[in-house]
């Protein structure tokens, strides 16, 4: 007989321990085929004292971001942290709005004129908020896992542009790595927030 009492899966070790965070979409993005240009899907995550903006990239005007924050009773100076899923301009263009925030990418935390080098993999902001390395679209891709009362939300940047993929990312740096990162997230997430589209619930039709 196999003893399974102490076995753990990747999902067990990847999943945030907490479920106290709240996720808001500040702006729903689009690409040239679905909108008048290119805009990023920008998220706000709140958990305790942490107020995190994810992927403050291209929008039609900066007021798209500031007005959405204002509707939630926040100003740009209230944001404690900015997370960049990767370094493409369409996902990072407006990071400079948040002058009081620390900035996080795949390899470091930047604060003022200094930085702390660290691997993103497993980095916790709170027990409900954890980073994963999910490369493939670029070499730097990271995902923010958000434990909420309603389930696990994965903010994935351009791991998916939108719910329908694209199935074959035309700018991926490594198709097999991209596929593996998608499978990793699909094993965890109840909701996926893509880089340029609305949040979606993954199912059998979700591009791998």
What does the overall shape look like? globular
Name of the level-1 CATH class: Alpha Beta
Listing every helix as H and every strand as E from the N terminus to the C terminus, the arrangement reads HEEEHEHEEEEEEEHE
Tell me the number of structural domains: 1
Corresponding CATH superfamily: Ribonuclease Z/Hydroxyacylglutathione hydrolase-like
Q: What's the main sheet like? A: 7 strands, mixed
Descriptive notes:
The protein has about 210 residues and is α+β, with helices and mostly antiparallel strands. Helices cover about 15% and strands about 25% of the residues. The protein is built from four helices and twelve strands, in the order αβββαβαβββββββαβ. The strands form two sheets. A seven-stranded mixed sheet has the order 1-2-3-4-5-6-7. The longest helix is centred in the C-terminal third of the chain and has 12 residues, at about 175-185. It is globular. The termini are far apart. Mean pLDDT is about 95; it is low at about 1-10.
List keywords for this structure.
208 residues, alpha+beta, seven-stranded mixed beta sheet, Metallo-beta-lactamase, Chain A, disordered N terminus, 4 helices, five-stranded mixed beta sheet, 12 strands, globular
């Amino acid at each position: 007989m196999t003893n399974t009492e102490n076995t753990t899966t990747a999902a067990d070790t990847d999943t945030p321990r907490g479920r106290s965070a709240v996720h808001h979409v500040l702006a729903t993005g689009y690409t040239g085929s679905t909108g008048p240009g290119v805009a990023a899907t920008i998220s706000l995550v709140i958990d305790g004292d942490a107020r995190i903006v994810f992927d403050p990239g291209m929008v039609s005007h900066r007021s798209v971001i500031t007005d959405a924050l204002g509707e939630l009773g926040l100003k740009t100076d209230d944001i404690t942290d900015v997370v960049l899923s990767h370094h493409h301009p369409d996902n990072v263009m407006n990071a400079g709005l948040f002058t009081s925030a620390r900035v996080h990418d795949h390899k470091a935390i930047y604060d003022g004129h200094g930085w702390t080098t660290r691997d993103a993999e497993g980095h916790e902001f709170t027990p409900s908020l954890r980073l994963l390395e999910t490369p493939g679209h670029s070499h730097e891709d990271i995902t923010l896992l958000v434990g909420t009362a309603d389930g696990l939300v994965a903010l994935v940047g351009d791991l998916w542009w939108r719910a329908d993929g694209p199935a074959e990312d035309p700018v991926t740096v490594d198709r097999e790595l991209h596929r593996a990162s998608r499978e990793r997230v699909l094993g965890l997430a109840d909701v996926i927030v893509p880089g340029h589209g609305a949040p979606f619930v993954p199912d059998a039709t979700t591009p791998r």
